[in-house]
Specification:
five-stranded parallel β-sheet; four-stranded parallel β-sheet; alpha/beta; single chain; Rossmann fold; 2 domains; binds phosphoric acid mono(formamide)ester
Length: about 300
């Protein structure tokens, strides 16, 4: 049986192309499963998974939980805001207490960059990074690429522009790694203050004119401005941001082709994207959410195959 080359899913930068192909092949199977009348398989009946969320989440938390339940795993959920973390407990103590309840896999979202890597070195469980600060969000990038593959047949050779707050985005970095691994061309577009200086070292071009960026691409992946990670002002006003970097139907109609619109959520409607674009025929935003369950089932299933029982 084919196996992943990694022991944990900590970031796309640790994966190779074969890993992504294997995850997508496995996700194809699970996508068929979750569209059956009985959307469940018994594959992980003997596996216990803890979802540890030290940062807010809607999509990722629900998607992981559903993926785990569709695989028949036992699931426990932890939310930092309602836990003893508030009383000063460390990450390692929190996780070791949970692991002593015989947990096999930990899915963790944490505000600190590298939290998943740190955990994988100190605890005896499979770790899946559900977003670590501004660093990586590997399952989001996998479901994004899976959705492009589903819509356009392949990721190879496609032109993808990531629009918005690149500086604070773990979705952007994981997408850049995943798309390039599959042979896509990637540009970023946004205010220069929200584009990291190291971006060219990743082989990514910068286009600060949104219309030119959209004319170039096959797919626009639109990101929200992450005000919660900003301690200074990066642009004069939201109104100006929307005028220069917001995607609206008039702008899309001015292009001489149709492009695919993506957004990882949460959406700030009327800021980075208008409602008519988000809800249009060219938007695959809800397909991304649907595919997230199948892709996460695949990741969990493949890592669980490595656990000695
Ligand atoms: N895309 C994403 O990570 O959304 P949540 O923050 O709601 O999980």
């Amino acid at each position: 049986m084919k196996q992943l080359s990694v022991d944990h899913l900590l970031g796309i930068k640790y994966l190779n192309k074969n890993d992504i192909d294997l995850i997508f092949e496995t996700a194809d199977h699970f996508k068929e499963v979750i569209n059956r009348p009985i959307k469940k398989v018994p594959s992980l009946r003997d596996i216990t998974i803890a979802n540890l969320f030290f940062e807010n989440s809607t999509r990722t938390k629900l998607s992981f939980e559903l993926a785990e339940k569709r695989l028949s795993a036992d699931v426990i959920n932890f939310s930092a805001s309602q836990s003893s973390v508030k009383k000063g407990e460390t990450l390692i103590d929190t996780v070791n207490n949970i692991l002593s309840m015989k947990v096999d896999i930990v899915v963790m979202r944490h505000p600190n960059v590298g939290a998943g890597v740190f955990l994988s070195k100190h605890v005896d469980a499979k770790i899946i990074n559900a977003g670590d600060g501004t660093h990586e969000h590997p399952t989001q990038a996998l479901l994004d690429s899976y959705s492009i593959r589903e819509k356009l047949g392949t990721v190879k050779g496609k032109k993808i522009v990531i629009v918005g707050d690149i500086l604070h985005s773990r979705v952007a970095l994981s997408n850049i790694f995943a798309l390039q691994l599959q042979g896509a061309k990637v540009k970023v577009c946004g205010p220069t203050t929200l584009i990291p200086k190291y971006i060219s070292s990743l082989g990514v071009e910068v286009e600060t004119n949104l219309k030119k960026a959209l004319e170039w691409c096959d797919v626009a992946n639109v990101l929200r401005v992450q005000h919660e990670r900003m301690d200074i002002k990066y642009f004069p006003s939201t109104r100006e941001y929307t005028q220069l970097f917001g995607i609206n139907q008039q702008l899309l109609d001015s292009l001489d082709k149709k492009i695919v619109i993506m957004h990882p959520g949460p959406i700030n409607r009327g800021v980075e994207i208008t409602s008519d674009v988000a809800d249009s025929q060219n938007s695959i935003i809800l397909n991304q959410v649907e595919n997230g369950v199948a892709v996460r089932m695949a990741v969990i299933y493949l890592l669980a195959q490595q656990i000695k029982r």
